[in-house]
């Protein structure tokens, strides 16, 4: 190993491969959803998401300004940050699904199952059905974000390159972090 990190000009060599990306997204639960205002300002909020069919799925009420903005300008992004400076950004196209859409049943149930463990006892006592009942309101929409491009970064590779323990172009071996992605 002789080629140590000299500068940060080309950080594209520190990406995350597709298998790791999928596994990270699948196990995580929160992401920043970003859209643009009518004045062109990028704005984002954190959402609990589900990853299904290669898309991010979130929900909010139709009255939220992001809903009108995404209807007009579906170009958006979703950013998920993980431990050890690993980030996954997806340039996305958004679709707004109105109340009563065919995704509602699986999405509400899946979101309830993912969210309930962290809820207060007063909420979790009602179980999945109670959580779904709270979500299932007439003004609720589901937002689907279809990735069109991925921008991924793995800070662990920068550290390994800087210390001489890895060079871009060499195979990357995942450290024993207790996390093993599905094959």
How would you describe this protein?
- With 183 residues, the chain is α+β, with helices and mostly antiparallel strands.
- It has a domain at 12-99 and 137-162: Pnp Oxidase, Chain A (Roll).
- It has helices spanning 18-27, 65-72, 104-115, 121-124, 127-135, 155-162, and strands at 30-36, 42-48, 50-52, 55-61, 75-82, 86-97, 140-154.
- A 7-stranded antiparallel β-sheet has the order 2-1-5-6-7-4-3, sandwiched between helices.
- A hairpin with a 5-residue loop joins strand 1 (30-36) and strand 2.
What's the story with the biggest beta sheet? 7 strands, antiparallel
Which CATH architecture of one domain would you pick? Roll
What is the CA-atom radius of gyration, in angstroms? 19 Å
Determine and state the CATH class of one domain: Mainly Beta
Q: Strands of the biggest beta sheet: in what spatial order?
A: 2-1-5-6-7-4-3
Backbone structural class: alpha+beta
Q: Find the CATH superfamily of one domain.
A: Electron Transport, Fmn-binding Protein, Chain A
Distance between the termini: 29 Å
Task: Spell out the key features of this protein.
globular, 183 residues, alpha+beta, Pnp Oxidase, Chain A
């Amino acid at each position: 190993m002789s080629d140590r990190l000299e500068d940060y000009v080309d950080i594209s060599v520190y990406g995350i491969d597709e298998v790791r990306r999928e596994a990270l997204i699948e196990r995580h639960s929160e992401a920043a959803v970003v859209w643009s205002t009518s004045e062109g300002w990028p704005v984002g909020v954190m959402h609990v998401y589900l990853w299904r069919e290669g898309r991010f799925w979130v929900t909010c009420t139709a009255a939220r300004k992001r809903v009108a903005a995404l209807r007009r300008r579906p170009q958006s992004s979703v950013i998920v940050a993980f431990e050890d400076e690993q980030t996954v950004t997806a340039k996305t196209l958004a679709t707004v699904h109105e109340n009563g859409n065919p995704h509602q049943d699986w999405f509400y149930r899946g979101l309830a199952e993912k969210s309930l463990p962290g809820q207060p006892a007063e909420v979790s006592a009602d179980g999945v059905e109670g959580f779904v009942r709270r979500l299932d309101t007439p003004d609720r929409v589901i937002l689907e974000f279809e990735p069109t491009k991925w921008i991924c970064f793995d800070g662990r590779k920068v550290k390994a390159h800087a210390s001489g323990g890895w060079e871009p172009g060499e195979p990357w071996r995942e450290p024993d972090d207790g996390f093993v992605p599905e094959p």
